[in-house]
From TrEMBL:
A motif (RDXXRA motif of the pArg binding pocket involved in allosteric regulation) lies at residues 338-343. It comes from Ornithinibacillus xuwenensis. Belongs to the ATP:guanido phosphotransferase family. Residues 24-255 form the Phosphagen kinase C-terminal domain. The gene is mcsB. Appears to be allosterically activated by the binding of pArg-containing polypeptides to the pArg-binding pocket localized in the C-terminal domain of McsB. It holds the Pfam family ATP-gua_Ptrans. It catalyses: L-arginyl-[protein] + ATP = N(omega)-phospho-L-arginyl-[protein] + ADP + H(+). GO terms for molecular function: protein arginine kinase activity. Keywords: Allosteric enzyme, ATP-binding, Kinase, Nucleotide-binding, Plasmid, Transferase. The keyword NADP does not apply. NCBIfam families: PRK01059.1-4, PRK01059.1-5. This is Protein-arginine kinase.
Length: 354
């Protein structure tokens, strides 16, 4: 089985909604790691154990709905093509680690793509829920409600002292990773983000690239998340993360204002040159495309560019990734072929500004 209808649109439906502080915060995510109490964890489980877990979740939840999250589609990772797996990673519906697994690894995704469940990744269950903008508290509430719904039929591995038990000790306790995706071009331009990262790490948080651990901050997109899961409640973790995010938002806005005041013409030139590259290039590499998209997005947020929708930029960030390009072409492409198609799709999409 494939998840074909999840492949056709670069933007998930929930991404089209407006969220608080969405000029800087693209999304908020809650991820919960859970394991079955009476089954070996994936790191030591045999194939039969993992297949039993996968088949149970498929039987109990495929095509079911929870509140507004309707009709969960189920797919085994081994049944997906490499291109399909790449697209799901690029849309943040599954992790790069899950995409590399076969055997009993699987996923369930709601129709609006706001909730996805990764099965037999590092843990038996990893729940992900997304909201647009800065909405960590709302995302946590919904994630815990969904978690309770699953727990009606699943006996979780839980210790009264330690909390939820997970394959990796760093997830023991709440089993929660909360994160926000932030667009921080001004802090990157002024090099302030490099000075801030050590201070953020000292607060028990981590700054990563667009696809999490080990990935680059393409297009000045940074993922800020908690590292500590033990010894704090979910609510306290959210409070700490949101406090730092609010400070980053304030610093980014001040940096944008300062650049505009001190180097306004140079900034406009940078933004319009980037727009020109996107509108007229015949060949463009992914890093250059991401850099130009970041500059144009900044121009939109500052009111310098008024005839390009912010949503177009959000869409193109995903649409220009390797998996999506090859899905669009319906074949495997070389890097050079992807660069040509990337430029063509950007030109085509920018003809329709709204």
């Amino acid at each position: 089985m494939t998840l074909q209808h999840f492949m056709n649109e670069a933007m998930s439906p929930w991404m089209r909604e407006q969220g608080p502080d969405n000029d800087i915060v693209l999304s908020s995510r809650i991820r919960l790691a859970r394991n079955f109490a009476d089954m070996p964890f994936p790191i030591i489980a045999n194939q039969e154990d993992l297949e039993q877990i996968r088949d149970f979740l498929k039987k109990e939840y495929e095509h079911h709905s929870f509140q507004e999250y309707e009709n969960f589609e189920f797919a085994s990772i081994r049944d997906l093509s490499n291109i399909e797996k790449s697209v799901l990673v690029e849309k943040h519906l599954i992790s790069p680690l899950l995409a590399k697994k076969d055997g009993a690894a699987a996923t369930m995704i709601s129709t609006n793509e706001q909730v996805s469940v990764m099965i037999n990744e590092e843990d038996h269950i990893r729940i992900q829920i997304y909201f647009p903008g800065l909405q960590l508290t709302k995302a946590l509430k919904k994630a815990l409600e969904f978690d309770d719904w699953l727990e009606e039929k699943v006996n979780y591995a839980f210790d009264e002292t330690r909390g939820f038990l997970t394959s990796c000790p760093t997830n023991v306790g709440t089993g929660m990773r909360a994160s926000v995706m932030m667009h921080l071009p001004a802090l990157a331009m002024t090099k302030q983000i490099n000075r801030m990262m050590p201070a953020i790490n000292q607060l028990g948080l981590v700054v990563r690239g667009i696809y999490g651990e080990g990935s680059e901050a393409l297009g000045n997109l940074f993922q800020i998340s908690n590292q500590i899961t033990l010894g704090k409640t979910e609510e306290h973790i959210i409070e700490d993360l949101e406090s730092v995010v609010q400070q980053l938002i304030e610093h980014e806005r001040k940096a944008r204002t300062r650049i505009l005041e001190q180097s306004g013409m140079e900034l406009e030139d940078r933004i319009y040159r980037s727009l020109g590259v996107l509108e007229y290039s015949r060949i463009i590499e992914s890093k250059e495309a991401a850099r130009c998209l970041s500059n144009v997005r900044l121009g939109i947020d500052l009111g310098i560019i008024n005839n390009v929708s912010r949503n177009i930029l959000n869409e193109l960030i995903v649409l220009t990734q390797p998996g999506f390009l090859q899905h669009y072409a319906k074949k495997t492409l070389t890097a050079s072929e992807r660069d040509v198609l990337r430029a063509s799709l950007i030109r085509e999409r920018l003809q329709f500004k709204e």
